[in-house]
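In response to the reviewer comment on reproducibility (Comment 2.3), we provide here a single inverse folding case reported in full, input and output, so that an independent group could reproduce the run without further information from us. The structure tokens appear first.
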């Protein structure tokens, strides 16, 4: 991992706290891609997602944990699935979204890694876009032995507004859901946002 990212994760002022268990969602796929850079051909604001996993009880790093991440591109689409637009008032759930994989060769914005001896790993990505009835988020799954946890990571709405004012995000209609109106965020989303080190990548402009 980059030294600056390790330093930021190590010096986090936020105390260790459990991530909330949140739904896996309708767009999970088993793709077995162990890699740090998950961007492929997607365009958007470069983003580094740095994770430091610690046993909340023992305060010891979770070494060798399998971390899997998946997210939407700037248009709100997940690799393998067709775009989906909810009807007014409809909440996107695993039951309400067609789960047919229409493009099995697509793997953008999906990947996994093992945490190192410090319990850390990082992904090179882009700032995710939005889709109907959901605020901006990233999905995360962690496995260690028989233990498995699934959560979602979020962004401050002010940060999202700044990003979405830029190309290519600005070419879309305004999003229809923010953190406070998202049915999943309200169930512990604020905690998962604070536990993760998420920042726009400063090593370049828009891809």
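Designed residues, in position order:
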């Amino acid at each position: 991992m980059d030294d600056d990212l390790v330093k930021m994760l190590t010096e986090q002022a936020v105390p260790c706290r459990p991530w909330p268990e949140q739904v896996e969602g309708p767009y999970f796929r088993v793709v077995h891609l162990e890699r740090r850079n998950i961007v492929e051909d997607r365009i958007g604001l470069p983003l580094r997602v740095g994770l430091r996993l610690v046993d909340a009880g023992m305060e010891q790093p979770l070494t060798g944990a399998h971390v899997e991440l998946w997210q939407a591109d700037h248009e709100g689409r997940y690799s393998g699935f067709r775009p989906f637009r909810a009807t007014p008032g409809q909440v996107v759930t695993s039951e309400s979204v067609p789960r047919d994989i229409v493009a099995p060769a697509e793997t953008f914005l999906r990947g996994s890694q093992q945490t190192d001896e410090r319990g850390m790993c990082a992904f090179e990505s882009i700032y995710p876009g939005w889709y109907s009835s959901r605020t901006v988020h990233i999905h995360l799954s962690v496995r260690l032995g028989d233990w498995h946890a699934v959560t979602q990571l979020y962004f401050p709405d002010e940060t999202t507004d700044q990003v979405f004012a830029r190309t290519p995000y600005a070419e879309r209609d305004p999003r229809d859901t923010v953190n406070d109106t998202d049915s999943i965020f309200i169930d512990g989303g604020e905690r998962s946002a604070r536990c993760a080190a998420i920042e726009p990548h400063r090593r370049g402009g828009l891809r």
